[in-house]
Amino acid sequence: MAPQIKYTKLFIDNQWVDAVSGKTFDTYNPHDGSVIAKVAEGDEADINLAVAAAKRAFHRNSEWRLLDAAQRGAILYKFADLVQRDADYLAELESYNNGMVLSFSKNFTQSGIQSIRYLASLADKIQGDTIPLNGEVFSYTLKQPVGVCGLILPWNVPILMFINKVVTALAAGCTVVVKPAEQTPLTALALAALLQEAGVPAGVVNIVNGFGVGAGTTLTHHRDVAKISFTGSMEVGKLIQQAAGATNLKRVTLELGGKSPLIIMNDADLNVAIPYAAFGVFAHQGQICVAASRLYVQSGIYDKFVQGAVAFAKQRKVGNPTEPTTQQGPQIDGEMMNKVLGYIEKGKKEGAKLLTGGKRIGNSGFYIEPTVFADVTDDMTIAKEEIFGPVQSILKFDTLEEVIDRANATNYGLSAGIFTTNLNTALQYSKHVEAGVVWVNTYLASGPQAVFGGFKDSGLGRENGPNCVDAYLEVKTVTISLPKKI
User: Fold this and answer.
1) How are beta strands 251-255 and 261-264 bridged, if at all?
2) Which DSSP string corresponds to 223-252?
3) Please, which of 33, 118, 287, 326 could form a disulfide with 448 given CB 3.0 to 4.6 Å?
4) Would you call 450 exposed, middle or buried from its count of C-beta atoms within 10 A (0-12, 13-18, 19+)?
């Protein structure tokens, strides 16, 4: 049974409101392409109202700014309890609007709850330093919230991204305007209602559904927005950085795409490596930025690995994401499905060997067969561009020295992995690969304690970890005249 749709309007200043224009847009179920609901379509006028509300809520004498840091943390802990209470509903709503396999969605929701509690614990851990300046002075630093933050969410893991961005900003004492991805607005609205229930004051959290042109561009160019945090494509990330420079030098955090290399050495345990490599690229239909989409297998085990990888892909169950035995659901929409199918055709035309999959499944919904290519070379499109689909590209290499150079020969640098039983090999690869996250004999293991972010075109700044709030803070040095003698 479909989950109840409780919220479809904009959330501004703790009020549910229609868009100023009165416009709405359809949001869809990727399983069958059906319309779930009509959602209010915010644009420039609505962003301006939301930013104004967030600016009022950030005033030094506002209810929010006058809270003790521990009180902010207590509100966020209450939010975690409410998300836990509604976890099944939120996971079902995510799956319904996003196509994520329900079991996967439930895991992500639980990870989100852990993240809220971790981030809430940081609210009263923000401390400055004393500075031993020369002369008859006393000097120290204050860490203070940067101000109104524009938070732009991706469609692939909306609940987790909402939590990571919003709760970090609130723990730091900021106020926020959130623009969910137009494909997946529903869980952001449901989470906003829970923040209100937890006691977040009016104007602190605002949600404006809408599109990149209109809502997104207004938010990124707004002079009263002090910071933008964006997760999404490299192309849009570059536009956001340009917008920040064109207006008020907004602080910018960007978590962008990846083309992550996963290395399988001759000495790897294939019983472990083959399933992990498949999970690394097929999880959530390949729609994760850290997907292991360049799979380098050493020549001594290449043929055996390819045989095992094909067999593993063939036995994956694709279907309705709500079914308990389903392992792979649909792509987010028809546009994304056709883009992935286009990459598959390029792989075939450029000489990669298609061993299984490669086609759309059925005519209803946006399903693609788990696809495995062998004999892929570095110059092929499927080895260079982010596919964001269930496509495993297997390349051959001979030496560690060679594969490190090949792994680094990309403008991306988000994540990487290696399977080996040789400690020296693991340490050398981990040291020299150009990526913000490296996994050894595992893949996708993560949590709120682990710093996350990319090298090169994969982004700017870091999320998660004990210092994640720093991205939402300004540091101020205060120096006071103080004679050394009393």
Assistant:
1) unpaired
2) TT--EEEEES-HHHHHHHHHHHHHTT--EE
3) 118
4) exposed
> Which residues does 10 contact at the CB level (< 8 Å), separation at least 6?
16, 17, 18, 19, 40, 42, 46, 50, 206, 207, 208, 209
Tokens of 116: 């809220």
Of 182, 289, 369, 463, the catalytic one is 289
Give the active site residue among 182, 255, 369, 463.
255
Beta strands (DSSP E) in 188-300 are: 205-207, 227-231, 251-255, 261-264, 294-298
What confidence tens digit (pLDDT) does each residue in 67-97 have?
999 999 999 999 999 999 999 999 999 999 9
Residue 289 a catalytic site member: yes
Residue with tokens 């009180």: 71
| 255 is an active site residue | yes
Q: How far apart are CA 201 and CA 204, in angstroms?
A: 6
Classify 409 as helix, strand or coil.
Answer: coil
Phi, psi of 422 (to 5 degrees): -100, 115
**Would residue 228 be called left, alpha or beta, if left means φ above 0 and alpha means ψ between -120 and 50 degrees?**
beta
User: In angstroms, how far is the first alpha carbon of the chain from the final one?
Assistant: 76
Tell me if residue 95 falls in helix, strand or coil: helix
Between CA 31 and CA 361 the distance in angstroms is 11
Q: What's the predicted TM-score (pTM) here?
A: 0.96
Closest CA to 474 of 14, 106, 206, 142: 142
Rounded-to-integer distance, Cα 183 and Cα 210, Å: 9
> For residues 58 and 175, is the Cβ–Cβ distance under 8 A?
yes
Q: What does the pLDDT look like over 457-466, one tens digit per residue?
A: 999 999 999 9
Task: Give the residue among 117, 34, 29 at the shortest CA–CA distance from 449.
Answer: 117
The DSSP call for residue 478 is E
